[in-house]
Design a protein that fits this description.
single chain, 211 residues, two-stranded parallel sheet, 33% helix
């Protein structure tokens, strides 16, 4: 498949790009810092700016089979990148009739009443941006979406095991988040779903099959 990854130089995006390429997909690795992405037979760096217009974005994603939005401004550009950039990408994806759209979000982003819990209180503005972008994807598009809402991302070794559809806060190894994202393509049952996750003891394949 032709897969367009927005945010390919991020912590999750780099690993996701590598995992998708390893699965045999042709990955278009999109980033404002595309020069940092090594080009391979399966990975093509694409200069990309979330400040661009819908029409400009639509030109770049033509003929793609899947779009991943895993970009994040780390709090530096929440409105223009994390929120409005995501919405413009959705609009462009609809114009181009992209068959599959996968968005990385934040744990409980659609549940404002939970944003005071644990570490979520420290990322309030980020969750506000994700609240509106997730809602737009669900209610204002006809895209075949999946939204993944992981808990706190930590730089620890991946385990290959997770808990999905969690109701409590927790942490995730970045490698496990990337593996879940890459594996979503193999599980049509995840389409149209919002999936919460954190570390756990269930193999990723089993957890996704049970969604």
């Amino acid at each position: 498949m032709k897969i367009f990854v927005v945010g390919a130089t991020g912590r999750v995006g780099q690993l996701l790009t590598e995992k998708l390429a390893a699965k045999g997909h042709n990955v278009f690795a999109a980033s404002r810092s595309a020069e940092k992405i090594p080009e391979t037979d399966r990975i093509k760096p694409i200069p990309f700016d979330l400040h661009a217009s819908v029409a400009e974005i639509a030109q770049q994603i033509r003929l793609m089979d899947v779009i991943y939005f895993v970009a994040g401004s780390r709090g530096q550009d929440l409105l223009q990148a994390d929120l409005f950039g995501a919405v413009k990408l959705m609009q462009a994806a609809e114009e181009g009739h992209v068959p599959r759209y996968i968005q990385l979000s934040s744990l409980f982003a659609l549940e404002p009443e939970r944003w005071s819990e644990s570490y979520l209180a420290e990322i309030m503005d980020y969750n506000i941006a994700k609240y509106f972008s997730d809602n737009w994807l669900i209610h204002n598009t006809n895209l075949a979406y999946t939204i993944l809402q992981p808990g706190s991302l930590v730089e620890e070794p991946a385990t290959g095991e997770v808990s999905l559809q969690v109701t409590d806060t927790g942490k995730n190894a970045i490698g496990d988040v990337a593996e879940v994202l890459a594996s979503l393509l193999d599980y049509p049952n995840t389409t149209g779903k919002v999936i919460t996750m954190h570390e756990g003891s269930t193999p990723i394949a089993t957890a996704l099959a049970d969604i």
